[in-house]
Amino acid sequence: MKNLRLIFMLLTFATLLVQPAFAADQQSDKEEPVVATMGEDGVQRVDIVGGEYYYKPNHIVVKVNKPVELRVKKAGRFIPHNIIVNAPEAGIDFKVELKSDFQTISFTPTKAGKYAMYCDHQLLWFASHREKGMEGIIEVVE
Ligand SMILES: [Cu+2]
Fold first, then answer.
1. Nearest-angstrom CA–CA distance, 89 and 86
2. How do residues 79-97 score in pLDDT, each as one tens digit?
3. Which of 118, 127, 122 is nearest to 58 (CA)?
4. Rounded to an integer, what distance in angstroms lies between the CA atom of residue 18 and that of residue 101?
């Protein structure tokens, strides 16, 4: 019993030590929005890389009612990440586990606005990846 309590205390202490280190990993929120590149085929394309604990870029801008191909991949090797947008009202609704190679997510946004993208992974009692900075914005403009 005593050992268990000791282990628990050590783990709690370790958590306190580790959290600020993760926080220092986060990127600034003040990144410039990246406008998707319109191809000659009328498809707008943009790449997003997810890592600990960020998306780069974390704010993308796309035009409404034009198809989008979002290419997504993971930067790190060991920590799992995903990318989620839950805005069916705007035609954007996906949840994709990131891999080391690019995967393409296709959708056509139907409504202007700003929609959150985020990673919902979370390790044990640590803050979720979203809380640690893995979130961003898909901005749909007219
Ligand atoms: Cu993540």
1. 9
2. 999 999 999 999 999 999 9
3. 118
4. 29
> Exposed, middle or buried by CB within 10 Å (0-12, 13-18, 19+), for 39?
exposed
Going from the Cα of 128 to the center of ligand 1, the distance in angstroms, rounded, reads 8
C-alpha of residue 27 to centroid of ligand 1, in Å = 14
State the distance from the centre of ligand 1 to the C-alpha of 58, rounded, in angstroms. Answer: 13
| Tokens encoding 17 | 């030590």
Residue 81 Cα to ligand 1 middle (Å): 4
Q: Please give the torsion angle defined by the CA atoms of residues 137, 68, 66 and 34, in that order, rounded to the nearest 10 degrees.
A: 40
Interval 13-70: pLDDT, tens: 455 445 544 444 444 556 789 999 999 999 999 999 999 999 999 999 999 999 999 9
